[in-house]
Description:
29% of the residues lie in helices and 16% in strands. By secondary structure, it is α+β, with helices and mostly antiparallel strands. The chain has a six-stranded mixed sheet, with helices on one face. It has a six-stranded mixed sheet with strand order 7-8-9-11-10-12. The longest helix has 18 residues, at 279-296.
Amino acid sequence: MPAVGPRQPCPCGSGRRYKACHGERRRAAPVLRPFAGRADEPDLVALREFVPSATAPLTLSAEHLAAHPGHADRRIILGTLLPQAAPAVVRDDGEILLAMQTLVGGLDASADVAGALIAALEAKPGTVVDGGPASAPQAVERLPGGLADLPRLADLLDPAPLEITVHPGFTWWVPSSEDAEPSADVVATLDRANATVVPTTRLTSVPAAYWCSPGDRLHLRWVLPLDADRTEEALLDALARLAAAGSLSVGEGSRFVGSFRADGLVVPVWDLAPGAAADSCEKPAAQLWTALRETLDDQRELTAQERRVRAGVVGRTLTLR
């Protein structure tokens, strides 16, 4: 194709200007469900989007260890947030802290976390991994296969679901040592970070549901899974059926207030009764989880009342960008 100016007609004969036709820079679209394929996808979304402080030990996949046997003894901890929002930190003893929450994201959150992990595995002890996201648009444009050329978490980790521990603060930032006390600067940093933590508890009776207490109110946020047989549309239909039947509850005095969409998954939110502890949600949430799965199998059309309720459910759904 001959060289032409951006405002000249495109040589392809379309009649459009070159800059709006074949001269247009086309960038890859963001990945809508970056953690799809993992059994713990809902928990990964929660750790990335709204859980303030939590950790989970990581195990590298057999395929990765076969290709990189030197990584077999590395201890890796996945956390929500690290100091200065760093993507990863390699401690002096070689232990790796890997963050889900960072200041700048790319087109694929899973590829960004995987890229930080690969960089940390190759970094020297005492290193802060602070490079840009692996899936930054400019970086992806330089790859022959685009996003498909980037490794993702599912490629690096053992497929077993994560064992998540929610913490009341960020003391896990500091390595446990009987020989040394943290410096005054470290203590001050921890105090500032701990003051921002919203009290949060992960329920044990259902997957990826988190009780939290922001200020004077209590909420339950529940990241609901999707799969080939559980599409978002079917999930919204099921929520509408339960709401129309007065069964969309996670405990006495609770009220469904809407939902948000994060990393491709729907996250319903309930206001809880004043003073409702996390334990009070366990049994009602388990009952709702059973009812929700049964309702998802209902293939009949929504009634007029259920359609009205569904419109309200959809209207109270926000998408996090």
